[in-house]
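Action item from last meeting closed. Structure (283 res):
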């Protein structure tokens, strides 16, 4: 129990700087929007998925949480959000480097995640036309839903947002870590089923990827390193796994049906992209 709490705290505490910067920026946007001086500020649009894919590939799951908050405040498109979610690599990169994998293969994996994220982001934006609007009412509604008491000022409100999200991530991470430790101690195998059913493997890997925690990316990457699953199945799980992104989305975006739909789209795109990636990376 103590080990699970300690590990969850270590995973969660590193998110605080990114979350704090995100909410400071959002509070600043609200104040600026009230003065109607945000015409030159655009976080997405036609270049949104491209920027999302490039930023998301940086191995830091905090970006996905930040993206979820921006989406809830109508500041980025759904395609940009999907691009960041799919490109995010979490713990994959450090694990692959630690196993002395060839740099060329690591570069290919990162490139495929980035390209797939960008492509899927543009596909989603072409089908879903909601445009981002950096307006006071959207971000103010976000603040009201989160009960941040914006009269406390930019910094005070941002700190309250950050603490609320941090505590949620910490609690969920503790339960998830307890589950994985229980599975390890009782020799519950995730790999045999995936390995023996390579087609179903993509579907199962995607389901594991939906777990809103960096532990999921650790598990999936280790299964690949140990030779239990192939690179395509690994990619499926990593495409779907957005770190704490989905968890934050369900916390800050109060349209539950929309959140479920987004998770479904992410899962479907991840499975398809993973199958294609397996072919590309296997050449």
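Sequence:
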């Amino acid at each position: 129990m103590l080990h699970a709490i300690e590990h969850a705290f270590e995973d969660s505490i590193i998110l605080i700087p990114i979350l704090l910067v995100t909410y400071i920026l959002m509070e600043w946007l609200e104040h600026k929007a009230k003065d109607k001086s945000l015409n030159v500020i655009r976080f997405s649009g036609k270049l949104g998925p491209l920027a999302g894919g490039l930023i998301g590939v940086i191995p830091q799951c905090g970006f996905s949480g930040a993206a979820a908050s921006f989406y809830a405040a109508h500041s980025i498109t759904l395609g940009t959000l999907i691009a960041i979610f799919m490109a995010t690599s979490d713990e994959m990169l450090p694990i692959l480097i630690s196993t002395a994998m060839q740099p060329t293969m690591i570069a290919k994996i990162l490139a495929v995640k980035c390209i797939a994220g960008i492509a899927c982001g543009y596909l989603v934006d072409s089908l879903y036309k909601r445009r981002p609007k950096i307006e006071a009412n959207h971000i103010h509604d976000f603040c009201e839903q989160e009960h941040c008491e914006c009269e406390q000022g930019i910094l005070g409100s941002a700190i309250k947002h950050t603490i609320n999200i941090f505590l949620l991530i910490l609690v969920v991470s503790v339960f998830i870590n307890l589950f994985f430790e229980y599975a390890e101690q009782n020799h519950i195998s995730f790999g045999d089923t995936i390995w023996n059913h390579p087609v179903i493997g993509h579907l199962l890997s995607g389901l594991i990827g939906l777990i809103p925690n960096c532990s999921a990316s650790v598990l999936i990457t280790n299964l690949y390193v140990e030779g239990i699953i192939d690179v395509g199945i690994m990619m499926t799980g990593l495409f779907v796994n957005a770190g704490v992104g989905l968890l934050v989305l369900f916390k800050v975006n109060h349209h539950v049906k929309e959140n479920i739909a987004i998770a479904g789209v992410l899962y479907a795109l991840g499975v398809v992209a993973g199958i294609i990636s397996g072919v590309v990376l296997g050449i």
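Note appended to the action item: The CA atoms of residues 13 and 166 lie 8 Å apart.
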